Each structure stands twice: as structure tokens, then as C-alpha cells.
Amino acid sequence: MDKKTIRDVDVNGKRVLMRVDFNVPIKDGVITDDTRVQAALPTITHILDAGASLVLMSHLGRPKGKPNPEMSLAPVAQHLARELGRPVKMAPATVGDDVAAMVSALAPGDVLVLENTRFQAEEEGKGCTPEEQETFAKQLAAFGDVYVNDAFGTAHRAHASTAVVCKYMDTNVAGLLMEKELNYLGKAMGGAEHPFVAVIGGAKVSGKLEVLKSLMAKVDAILIGGGMAYTFLKAQGHGIGDSLLEEELLDTANEIVAAAKEAGVALLLPTDNVVADAFDAGANTQLVGVDVPDGWRALDVGPETVKQYAAEIAKAKTIVWNGPMGCFEMEPFAPGTMGICEAVASSGAVSIIGGGDSVSAVNKSGLADKMSHISTGGGASLEFLEGKILPGVAALDDK
Predict the structure, then answer these.
(1) 171 shares its domain with 192
(2) In 3D, which of 159, 164, 176 has the Cα closest to residue 379?
């Protein structure tokens, strides 16, 4: 990692402005999954233990640039206080005179949470001028001596609190979570140990085109599952019944298969499938071979496919997994994805799980603690694996 981190700066007696990802699910004022809060705690604790005061900022939901009480960060501030075992102050807004006064009053060890950054249209830069976004970023920058970005999940967005603010800060560094994400993903893209296996699933080829192209030059095998597999199988001349199909990408699918062959990359497709007569957990199901009968749709890979994929995974020293093998949210179509979870967990390889659905599947399997790294940013991890520059990372200081 070539970016400075919180470890590289002395924050004693200083005020730290930190971007976190507290975009957590809340029901009736209670956080139902605090994974993202837990992920930020090491950096928060590090900063407070070093003798700094701390101003935290995050978005929550999609309030579209306007205040919305249902998307207030107040419940998160209360939850954070319990986790830290110390008071956490809640600002009435993101910026403004009242907020500035609260920031100025902070003493070392104090924590203040700003209100949802997306309550301001200037955060995303929608419905405002570039000058207004710059002004908002300057207001945020005035709240800290040091800027820390620990929100990898939003690092692919060039928002005021993730990138623009850095122009007005003297010191911009990565938090411990950001550092971990960049180290694991960076190693996968630049110095992975071989054999290197990529497991790519999810609904559509279109969403994974760039990551397939990027990984092609780096991996030894690509294992394809999920809805996207049936565009590949159709392109190969197989019957896919009513399974998901992106007809406009049939030629592209064949080009990817040809490119893999030319690069010496093993590209595996499902050889058996669990099919249903409707997209429903209570539908009639059957196990078929590589071809799906008319009137049926494939909703999971079959046990023979899992066995073949597991054999490839067992040989791996590095694994990147992005996207489930089927509709694992419905019990009849979960075994394929769960089988891959078990194979990755028992592989002994460095395993990097990226993408929201993959993370959900791993958590559902109960095997999360067997994975080397579970990325907190679905979109950000995907763009990183595609080789794109993430604005929130690019804005940080180089070592």
C-alpha cells in the first residue's frame, strides 16, 4: 500500500475528521446489523487512544440531498457510544454555525457524529453547482486538522466527504480498515500467490465484464456461476430454458471464453443445474445436466458443478470470490453457494470475498471467520478488481 495511514501521523492534541461507513440497516430506531460500525472501531479507538478529538461523518441511505428524520445518524451515535463505553455527541446538522461551535468545544477524547452527509445536495454534487460542492467541502475541512478515510465502501465515489474535502486538508491518510482493504485487494491484483482462482457469480455478465477482463491476465482459473453463467452456456450452444439471458452479450461471452483459452486460463461453467418451474422458493424443482429444459429456469448450480469447482479451489493459493452461484436467499437454491463457501473456507488459501451478495452468503454460511478478508465495499471492491482508480483512495497522501 503506497498511501499514508493513521499510523504515519501524530494526532495527539489534534482534531481528526474521519469519514466512516455507517450506512447500516435501521428498523424502529435500532441497528439490525452493526458490521460496519464494528469495522470502524479499531481506527476510532486508535485515534482516541492517541489523544485526539474526533469528528465522524457518514452517509446513511438515499435521502436525495434533503434532511429525512428516518435516515438520521442519531441511532448510530447512540449505538457507537455503547460500543466505545464513552459519550458520543450528535450534531444537529452536517455543517453550520451550531455544528462549528460543537466542533470547537471538543476536548481530547471527545467524539462528535455529524448528521448524514447526504442530507446536503452538495455531498454527491447533484442539484448544485461545483462551486457549492467546493464550499461544502471547505466547511467540512474546517472541522479537522487531519483527515482520515476509513470508508472503503464509498471510496469509489468522488463525493465531498470522500474526495473533495482532501483538497482543503494538509494531511489526508487511510484508516486501519481502508489500509486492510487496499492491502488485500492490492495483493490480489499485483502480487498474488499462484494458483490464483477467481470465482465470479451474480446475475449478469454485463456487471462483471470488466472484472473478467481484468482478472484474465492474472488468474489461473475462472469459475463462473449465478445467472450470468447461462449467457455463456447459451453462447456455447446449450439449451437454457427460461434462465437469465443477456442476448446482446452472446458474442462477448464467446470472446471471453476464447480469450481465456488463449491465455491458458481454465474457464469453468456449470455442468449440472438445479432448475425450477417458477422463481419461487415453493416452486417445483429438479436436477438436470448442462442443458435446461424449456419451461424451466436454472436457479442454482448442481452438486457435480460444486464438486468440480471445489477441486479447483482446493488447489488454489489465492482466491477472489465475487457473486453467488445461485439464488441462495431461497433455501432450495442455496446449496451451490454454500458449497463454494465450504470449499473456500477449507482451502487454506488467501481468500478475498468482495461484493454485497457474496458477503451475505458467507455470513449466512457461518464460515466468515474462515475467510482471510471480507470486503466492506461491494461496488468499491468490484471497481478495484476492474483496475479502476478509486477517487477516495487517490485523494489520500502518498507515502
Answers:
(1) no
(2) 159
- The string of pLDDT tens digits covering residues 182-230 is 999 988 888 899 999 999 999 888 888 888 988 898 999 999 999 999 9
Looking at 138, 204, 213, 370, which residue is catalytic? 204
C-alpha cell at 233: 452456456
Mean pLDDT of 130-147: 97
pLDDT of 36-80, one tens digit each?
999 999 999 999 999 999 999 999 999 999 999 999 999 999 999
Same-domain status, 172 and 197: no
| Cα(95)–Cα(90) distance, integer angstroms | 12
| Residue from 317, 379, 387, 388 carrying the catalytic annotation | 379
Higher pLDDT, 110 or 30: 110
Q: How many domains does the chain have?
A: 2
Contact 310, 318 (CB under 8 A): no
Mean pLDDT of the chain: 95
E strands of the chain, at which residues? 15-19, 26-27, 30-31, 53-57, 89-90, 111-113, 146-149, 172-174, 196-200, 221-224, 266-268, 273-276, 285-288, 297-301, 318-322, 350-353, 373-374
Would you call 36 a catalytic residue per the annotation?
A: yes
Active site residue 282: no
CB 286 within 8 A of CB 297: no
Q: Both 161 and 208 in a single domain?
A: no
- Mean pLDDT, to the nearest integer, of 325-329? 95
Give the residue numbers spanning the domain of 355: 185-385
Q: Which of 125, 144, 302, 356 is catalytic?
A: 356
One-letter identity of residue 90: M
Active site residue 378: no
Our answer to whether residue 204 is catalytic in this structure is yes
- Per-residue pLDDT of 286-313, as tens digits, reads 999 999 999 999 999 999 999 999 999 9
Catalytic residue among 36, 118, 208, 218: 36
DSSP structural state of residue 388:
P
